[in-house]
Design brief:
globular
Length: 95
């Protein structure tokens, strides 16, 4: 029997909101998996500069940005605001 581990959160997500477009194109599992990765500091498919900025932003009141892909290949973003009150799941065209 395997034990599923829950990643340790590196920051507060605040309220999680999702755009209508993202809700229509992503599964609940896609979103939940991304939330776990994002809160654990796994920024997904961001470039090196954004990765470094996120690591710095963990210690400052700055936004956090991740890029993920759903099981069926849909690219989506997760953005936690600088005040850590809201995390938004959205597609790039929703921005």
């Amino acid at each position: 029997m395997s034990v599923n581990t829950v990643p340790v959160a590196k920051f507060r997500l605040g309220r999680i909101v999702t755009t209508q477009n993202a809700l229509a194109r992503l599964t609940q599992e896609d979103i939940l998996r991304a939330i776990q990765r994002h809160m654990a500091g796994d920024w997904g498919d961001v470039g090196e500069e954004d990765r470094k900025e996120n690591e710095f932003s963990l210690t400052q009141p700055l936004r956090l940005f991740s890029v993920y892909h759903s099981e069926n290949g849909v690219k989506f973003w997760m953005i936690t605001e600088a005040d850590r009150r809201v995390t938004t799941v959205l597609l790039p065209q929703d921005y």
